[in-house]
Give the backbone structure.
Amino acid sequence: MKWLTVLGIVVIAILITLYEWPKMTKDQKKEKKAFTVFTIGSVVLAVLLVYFPEMPGPTQLVDSIFKPLGKLLEK
Amino acid sequence: MMDKVRISAMQMAILLYATIMATAVLIAPSVIGKFAKQDMWISPVWGAITGFLTVFIAYRLNKAYPEQTIIQYSEKIVGRIPGKLIGFLFLVYYLHLNAISLREYGEFVKGNFLIETPMVILLGTMAFVCVFAVRGGIEAMARSAQIFVPLVIVLFLFIAIMLIPDLKPKNMLPVMENGPGPSIMGGFISSSWFMQFFLIAFLLPSLGKGEKGLKWGSLSVIAVMVTLAISNLFSLLLLGDITSTFVYPVMSAVRFISIAEFLQHLESIVMAIWVAGTFVKIAVFHYVLVIGTAQWLNLSDYKQLVYPLGFLLVIVAIWSAPNLQKVAHVLATTWPFYDILVHVLIPVLLLFVAMIRKKATKGSN
């Protein structure tokens, strides 16, 4: 079933690209680059999450950085 | 300035009000109640102080660098590389914060109404609508907020009036049993909502000429303060000491309403408030993230980033939290410090450096 989720993710990414890509003009090279990086990055992250749902997330990062201060409010 | 469209100061205030009130009104009574107990209705007043402070800082920075957002002027104030780093921190922060808000919305709807629906669908549909709004531009968002917010306020007041017969004023006593300490502690927690008023730094550049940004920003802070105080007070008067044990005290409170066994199940109204408010909230944060990213990369337009970042938003929303309890714990302990760093310490530092460079002095006259 996991490959089906991955397929869904890829389909969404392709739909977004099909919708946005023709709207960018030829001289918008930087915009195209940014668009590609964000779309591919999101797909990679999504696929990783499908296979490793327990991957530590940004919330844990914030939690561990501010832990010493957070203890003040711990109850 | 990429977006040529202008909004009025009142529209800005409405956007801010909806953005901050949306999640606060349901969760705040529980989180604040943990620290402030029966003084929880005083806490928003302390919290509002940080609200005024952040609005004022953002306003002064905007005066010194009109037409720019913090992503742009941070580079001018502290130099290119540190400025980019600050900009990056802001973008990561807004993506993360928005993802958590989206997740809170998903958990709420799933937990209370659509129990069988997969989380991804709930998050995806909401993100989709918000992304549409953002693609329409700030003016479209401002106008949709103008339609939603009065409706939300009317529904909120309706619920408050319906609850009056069930209130037990005794729950409020003793006021300040242990001095002002607990209420200030609760105020500190609530200030993490008020600090979100720093969003104004991204909206002020879109204001038309001669609009009173500071005045309407402050009015918005007062409106949020009053709303939070009312929702805290009513949760307290109805539920008493156990308020903080509920995840959504306002929701539980509304379930009490039964007028002549005729007017019942008003939860759907709370749901309507929550969905409309969350829509504005996520759209505003997404707008900020998207224009911020475009400015950070020096792009000529932001519109093509709206969809990819919306997609990323849903993924981060799933990634950011294993469950709501974990998020609620982080929000109540470590998150306020993250908020202070991004919304107070860095802006104050920027303003300080800018003042040393004697650019802010021009704005004060």
Notes: The mean pLDDT of chain B is 82. The interface with chain A takes residues 34-35, 92, 96, 99-100, 185, 188-189, 293-294, 297-301, 303-305, 307-309, 311-312, 315-316, 318-321, 326-327, 330, 332-338 of chain B (CB under 8 Å). The two ends of chain B are 25 Å apart (CA to CA). Residues 9-357 of chain B form a domain with the Amino acid/polyamine transporter I fold (CATH 1.20.1740.10).
